[in-house]
Amino acid sequence: MRILVLGGDGYLGWPTAMHFSARGNEVMVVDNYLRRNLARETRSEALVRNPNLHERASIFNAVTGKKIEVRIADCSNASELDELFLEFHPETVIHYAEQPSAPYSMIGYREAQRTLNNNLNATFNVIWSVIRYVPECHVIKLGTMGEYGTPNIDIEEGWIDIKHNGRSDRFLFPRQAGSLYHTTKVLDTDLLWFYVRLYGIRVTDLMQGPVYGLETAETGADSQLMPNFHYDDIFGTVLNRFLVQAVAGIPLTIYGKGGQVRGYLNLQDTLQCVELACRQPASKGELRILNQFTEQFSVYELAERVREAGNDIGLKVSLQHIANPRKEKEEHYYNAKHAGLIEMGLKPHLLTGDVIERMLRRVMEYRSMIDKEKVLPRVRWG
Ligand SMILES: NC(=O)c1ccc[n+]([C@@H]2O[C@H](COP(=O)([O-])OP(=O)(O)OC[C@H]3O[C@@H](n4cnc5c(N)ncnc54)[C@H](O)[C@@H]3O)[C@@H](O)[C@H]2O)c1
User: Fold this and answer.
1) Which of 11, 119, 166, 227 lies at a 20 to 30 A Cα distance from 55?
2) According to the model, what pLDDT value does residue 375 have?
3) Is pLDDT above 90 for 231?
4) Helix (H) or strand (E) holding 84
5) Is the CB of 269 under 6 A from ligand 1?
6) Catalytic one among 11, 96, 181, 264?
């Protein structure tokens, strides 16, 4: 299959490109290094300096003999994206190319505007490139569980049947995002739904929870193939942050009471989910929405698990509740359905003590590179 991975230099994009290439697909990756640039601007660089995309593809080629085509281009620029679609004629496009940090989007006007313009224009351009050049192409778009917020009812997989004044209809599940970044994902979904209805394109929107982990089947061949691993308050996801804090001897920083519940998944399961979506595409004129996570935890529970696993291997891990920089409920109901991907064949890798220990040991290899000033929250909501 010809697979175009947009945002192919990212935490998820690079492992995805290697995964599909290793399995015999033709893969082209596209990135404009937005995240690397924003990380430099905000002093949020990854734990390990990753080779650039051309270098990564060369290293991958040297160890596997497989080729990944690399293009440096901006998906928010329609003509640059059109050219790539015309050249590559993808059968599947996996769209990761967005500014994914909630705290970054909440710094101020400039960062909010940059996030809004980048994310919406990228999605809008992907839709139009598909409509114009490859109308049969399956769009796999990464959304986020954060689109739903934390409603006081069960969260369905994308859709809800509503009865009103004796009549009923099916609608997108209500969304109420907690940051400007998450709001751009809500707007992305609305754009996709509009063009699915209007032009009959085929789309899978994966509502993903926070991802953790540093390893996939392909990363073992050479340490330089490791995904970008951020542990700061802006680009680091919560578990990755806790792992680094545990190794650095910094108390794990729990925002507020730590009762915020979210659905999490292992990086290896992201790859499985995207592969399942790819092999079982949405039909023409379908917006298929799948909730992509494997387990729910509160932030406090996550911190407790890291403390336990860390202490088992001789680290001295403690927890610290700090003022919550975000505006969010710290205690709330949360029950999100996620049967769709399991029914399609997902075999979850769960967050056991062994898994945490393995990740801690990997981070310990890079202990001397940890910049302790990156871990405390620098961005406050509102
Ligand atoms: N990592 C997670 O935990 C998580 C959870 C839920 C959803 N997501 C979504 O998954 C996607 C990938 O996330 P990630 O963690 O890999 O983020 P990332 O920042 O590591 O990767 C995104 C990549 O897209 C690139 N990019 C952004 N805008 C671009 C543009 N206009 N043109 C070309 N390239 C562009 C960036 O440079 C970056 O390399 C994002 O859409 C994110 O919202 C991620």
Assistant:
1) 119
2) 85
3) yes
4) helix 78-88
5) no
6) 181
Burial 328-360 (b: 16+ CB within 10 A, else e): bbbeeebebebebbeeeebebeebeeebbbebb
Break the chain into its structural domains and give their ranges. 2-374
CA distance 182 to 187: 9
- 212 close to 359: Cβ distance less than 8 angstroms: yes
Residue minimizing CA distance to atom 15 of ligand 1: 11
Entry field: residues in the chain:
382
The per-residue pLDDT for range 338-361, each reduced to its tens digit, is: 999 999 999 999 999 999 999 999
Is residue 167 over pLDDT 90?
yes
Judged by phi (left if over 0) then psi (alpha if -120 to 50, else beta), residue 7 lies in left
CATH 3.30.565.10, applies to 2-374:
no
pLDDT in tens, 106-128: 999 999 999 999 999 999 999 99
Tell whether the model's pLDDT for residue 288 goes beyond 90: yes
> pTM score, two decimals?
0.98
Q: How is 248-313 classified by DSSP, letter by letter? A: HTPPEEEETT---EEEEEEHHHHHHHHHHHHHSPPPTT-EEEEEE-SEEEEHHHHHHHHHHHHHHT
Q: State if residue 7 touches ligand 1 by the CB under 6 angstroms criterion.
A: yes
Determine the pLDDT at residue 382: 85
